[in-house]
């Protein structure tokens, strides 16, 4: 007989034979001693509290696009119509794709910027509207978001350009596409550029790594570049903030230029900011945060979650190095984005586990549009957002972790009770005895996977449960 079947019969037999003893399934599989004394009393199903009485000020950002969004030319209108629903769910920021005209015109996702001031107003690169719509539709989207108290984050690509006209470049000894003016990829006539604004030039050979559009890698030491990107009264930064109405910034591919230029931009115009330092080394990300003075996406957390769920080794969640563990106020956590989802870092079958992790842990969580708009995920994500906005607060303590279990506590604050999250990657419902910060309390699973309430003893000890291949978020009834 298959050994796993034998184990299941053993478990069933023990349960039938010993009504006073409860079994931890994880103990049966993994530990030399399989029995634990029951330290809680099961109580009938209970209604949980109205969590909205514990609103803690947490917010959640929505990445409001994916790669090659459809329908083309209608994206701004589509997102505008979702802002009411998103605000009601607890979204407090939306991150938009680069809004300016790119070399690919109506097919561009904005990461090949040509004219920073063409937000769907000038006919160039074969189109007037951007892939996402017209300037008027962008203005409407921002107004609708602001009516719903949602900040709008602009994606800023200031490392490289694309779509200029040809000119002889003496520093490369050949023709390069580095001429940007009214007739060459810059119909607005603002921030005209030439080969002196790119690398190499008369003052600078190169800055950081330049993996994209190397010949059009902007030199941020040039006065013309600094003036037009952030210093002038009508610079890109000030135009986007003061005229267009953007509230904050997501800086693309920040490895391609010095963090001092991110710092200079934010010092000049302010606004909530986050950088894409695409690296799994948490120490390198911390160094960039310290130098730039803004938040960073927690790529180390992303890669550690991938390893934990794919290897079925949830101890990685406890032991892996992540930005939020040392810099919770600087860490923007996420499960997928427009780049990582094309060849998924975290496969769809693990995504809800990952969202349960980031939405109950420190850091500022980001939702990916395609995940949230997945009807199989939406209701579950809405509940996790509510938990994040309410009882996901206080100090974090990992109570237990092993291959298929992870249990962590948030201590709460004042009248806020906090929570305990129990992630179970086993194919069976599991139980685990832990000591919580709740003494003598009835508990409720605010996810709803476990319908029977539990209660702690006078020391806070309880035999917690988590559903098979699922997760529970426990707090007081």
TrEMBL record:
Instruction: Supply one GO BP term.
Output: carbohydrate metabolic process
A Gene Ontology molecular function term for this protein is: alpha-amylase activity
The positions flagged as active site in the entry are: 252, 276
The alphabetized UniProt keywords are:
Carbohydrate metabolism, Glycosidase, Hydrolase, Metal-binding
Top-level EC class as recorded in UniProt: hydrolase
Q: Which residues form the Glycosyl hydrolase family 13 catalytic domain?
A: 59-432
Q: Which cofactor does it need?
A: Ca(2+)
EC number per UniProt: 3.2.1.1
Task: Report the family membership.
Answer: Belongs to the glycosyl hydrolase 13 family.
- Provide the protein name: Alpha-amylase
